[in-house]
């Protein structure tokens, strides 16, 4: 198969879809890989490394899309890329369709085959291709939150871990999944007073067993959330419903119950955010203030640490990319149930229920496609 790796063009997106090591594995399986010139530079990978791994370098993004049968990316295509996507072209990347009707309709119109990293789902309901980026974002949420708690950045002026004789900051984490667990670990390690809220008693029991003494767990509901936001200094939103829009757990009216300078970090922004006042921001302009509450909602947080993120992402996506390239998407998805759940849009048809529900679009049965093996 002919595989293309374009340079990411989303604002301050420094990751790249495949490392040189990943290219070498794809080439070893008999595939041809075209990488756009300087695509890996911001992640620390020179063109010469890709050439040494067996890739061919193309100078423009247009040539990559025109040449490739399969595109491997990091982030969803943005408007300048829509017209470059060909009918039947296989796209393997993060899409987060449910948060963008414009993107969804553009991919429907393209006639392409869209396999979304974030909806590949194992039998235990874990999301293997989302997990590493959730780990990065969860940890980064505390780094960024701690920074924006500083007074010059309009925060409350609190050191996350406090000092002897002065109480540490209070951190509220909404969601006890991968993001929430990593955020709580980081905040606890920095000495904060941490509370995790979740609706799964089983998950809360696990977290209570493994977390240090400065992390408390509570069952999540509106009453509990309203109680904690009055005294929390940093609130991290990490709630995820696979492939669907995130629930709005903090509403606009709740901001008035928070202290001035409270910081909200919404890691669920890719799925629409779990705060009503969330709007996507960029690393270039990451925060905004509503009712004296600082909002940080960068839609590609791991892009700020591209070397770590690209390495972690390729580690998990490469085995699936090899299956797609070796077998073609129909056979690969027919034989791999988790990968089949990654199919979101096929030749103009929506095949993932949460996307159909989000925009009231007709839903086609994915099995009608994967059972027709070439």
Report on the structure:
- The protein is an alpha/beta fold and 374 residues long.
- The protein has two domains: 2-119 and 305-370, NAD(P)-binding Rossmann-like Domain (Rossmann fold), CATH 3.40.50; 131-299, 3-Layer(aba) Sandwich (Rossmann fold), CATH 3.40.50.720.
- Helices cover 34% and strands 16% of the residues.
- The protein contains 14 helices and 15 strands.
- The protein has helices at 20-28, 47-52, 61-67, 79-82, 101-110, 131-148, 178-189, 201-210, 222-229, 306-327, 329-335, 337-340, 353-359, 367-370; strands spanning 2-5, 32-36, 56-58, 70-72, 90-93, 113-116, 170-174, 193-198, 215-219, 234-237, 263-266, 287-290, 293-296, 343-346, 349-350.
- The chain has an eight-stranded mixed sheet with strand order 3-2-1-4-5-6-14-15, sandwiched between helices.
- Helix 6 (131-148) crosses helix 7 (178-189) and helix 10 crosses helix 11.
- The longest helix has 22 residues, at 306-327.
- It is globular.
- The model has no long low-confidence stretch (mean pLDDT 95).
């Amino acid at each position: 198969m002919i595989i293309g790796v374009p340079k990411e063009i989303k604002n301050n997106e420094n990751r790249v879809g495949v490392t040189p090591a990943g290219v070498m594995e794809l080439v070893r399986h008999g595939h041809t890989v075209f990488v756009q010139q300087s695509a890996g530079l911001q992640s620390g990978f020179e063109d010469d490394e890709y050439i040494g791994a067996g890739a061919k370098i193309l100078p423009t993004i247009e040539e990559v899309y025109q040449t490739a049968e399969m595109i491997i990316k990091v982030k969803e295509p943005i408007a300048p890329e829509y017209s470059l996507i060909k009918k039947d072209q296989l796209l393997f990347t993060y899409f987060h369709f449910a948060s963008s009707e414009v993107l969804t309709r553009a991919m429907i119109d393209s006639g392409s085959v869209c396999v979304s990293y974030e909806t590949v789902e194992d039998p235990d309901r874990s999301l293997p291709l989302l997990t590493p980026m959730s780990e990065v974002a969860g940890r980064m949420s505390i780094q960024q939150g701690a920074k924006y708690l500083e007074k010059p950045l309009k925060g409350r002026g609190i050191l996350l871990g406090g000092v002897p004789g002065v109480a540490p900051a209070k951190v509220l984490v909404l969601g006890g999944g991968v993001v929430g667990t990593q955020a709580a670990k980081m905040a606890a390690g920095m000495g904060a007073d941490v509370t995790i809220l979740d609706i799964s008693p089983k998950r809360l029991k696990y977290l209570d067993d493994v977390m240090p003494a400065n992390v408390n767990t509570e069952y999540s509901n509106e009453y509990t959330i309203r109680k904690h936001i009055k005294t929390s200094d940093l609130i991290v939103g990490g709630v995820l419903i696979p492939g669907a829009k995130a629930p709005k757990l903090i509403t606009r009216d709740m901001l008035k119950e928070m202290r001035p300078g409270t910081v909200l970090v919404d890691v669920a922004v890719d799925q629409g955010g779990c705060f009503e006042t969330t709007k996507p921001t960029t690393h270039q302009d990451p925060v905004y203030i509503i009712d004296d509450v600082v909002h940080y909602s960068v839609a590609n947080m791991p892009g700020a640490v591209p070397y770590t993120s690209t390495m972690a992402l390729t580690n998990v996506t490469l085995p699936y990319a090899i299956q797609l390239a070796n077998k073609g998407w129909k056979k690969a998805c027919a034989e791999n149930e988790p990968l089949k759940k990654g199919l979101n849009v096929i030749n103009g048809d929506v095949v993932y229920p949460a996307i159909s529900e989000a925009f009231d679009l007709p839903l086609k049965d994915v099995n009608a496609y994967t059972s027709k093996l070439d």
